[in-house]
Every structure is written in structure tokens, then in C-alpha cells.
Amino acid sequence: MKSNKKIFGFVGLIASGKGTAAKYLAKKYQASTHRFSTSLREVLRRLYLEENRDNLITLSECLRKNFGQDLLAKIITQDALKDKKRIIVVEGIRRLDDIKYLSKLPNFILVEIVADSKIRYQRLIERGENTDDNTKTYQEFLADHKKPTEITIAKVIKLAQEKINNNGSEKDTQKQLDKLVKKYGN
Q1: What is the residue-wise DSSP string for 141-163?
Q2: What domain range includes position 165?
Q3: CATH of the domain at 93
Q4: How far apart are CA 5 and CA 124, in angstroms?
Q5: Is the full-model pTM beyond 0.85?
Q6: Which tens digit of pLDDT belongs to each residue from 47-84?
Q7: How many domains, in total, are found in the chain?
Q8: Quick check: 173 and 33 in contact, CB under 8 A?
């Protein structure tokens, strides 16, 4: 692996802005992005199943139970190793197993993306990434944080080396991301 390659791992609660931050780095710095949910979404589409949070969780649990808790971590790490870009973003880190291999790579930086719950809820409703997002109540949104894939995020956040506060404007967040890239060598 090239010593100048930087791998930013984004961890944060539901709709904290991990995807938006990744898209910004992809656009401005030609970073490549890898999401833990991509392979799960591909399987759901192939099975003609709805892409909602419950189906993603069920599939993830099934795969991890049968093929190892670190299955998706192995996939993402191999993708990052093969990636030729100088800046790589891995988003959707939720478990300690998710960084089991990534954290051993040179130049891996774990970054927490944080935003208040009301802001995150509004973003979730507006983006409608999953089929059930647009109709979700605030109470359902908060209940989602207690699901198996979400309760482990707090443990991973404690290991974050950097923090991006995404409560402000898009420009504010972009400035923080620019500083992050500069800090670790553009």
C-alpha cells in the first residue's frame, strides 16, 4: 500500500452526514468511497426485496452469523487495499469488527460525524434513502437507534481520532473536512 494513501473511516449515528461528507470528499478531492451497506443493498436488489432498514439488518446479521462477524470488514478492507485513489472513504462503520482490519492499515483515520437527533431525523426524512424513511415518525427514528446494528456504534465512536460536527451549515462541515484532509496530507 502506498504510504501517501489516506483511508478515512466515517462512523456516526443514523443520518449524521457520513454519506454527505463522503460525497464532498469524492467531488473535491476525487476520493473513492466504500460503504458497508453497498454489498447488502446489492443482495437485496438481486433478491427483489425492499431496501429498508429491517431487511438490511436481517441480511447483515444472517451473513455475519453464518460467515463470521468480520465478513463485511474483510470485503471493505480488500476493496480499500485494491483502490488506487490517494484518498479513500469508508462509511457506515458500526461495529468494532468493522475496523478490525482497517485499523491495522497504515494511514487509517477513524472519524466521527456527529449531529443532533432532530437534525438527523429531518435529514433522514428528506433523503429517503430507505423505502421506509419518508414515513418514519421521530419515535420510530429513535427506536431504530436501539436495533442491533446501531447499538454498537457508541463503542466505535470512542475510538475515533477525529470529529466532524455536522450541526451547522454545509459550508461549515466542508471547512472541517478540508482541514481534516489538509491535516493528514492532501
Answers
A1: HHHHTTSHHHHTHHHHHTT-SEE
A2: 6-179
A3: 3.40.50.300
A4: 32
A5: yes
A6: 999 998 889 999 999 999 999 999 999 999 999 999 99
A7: 1
A8: no
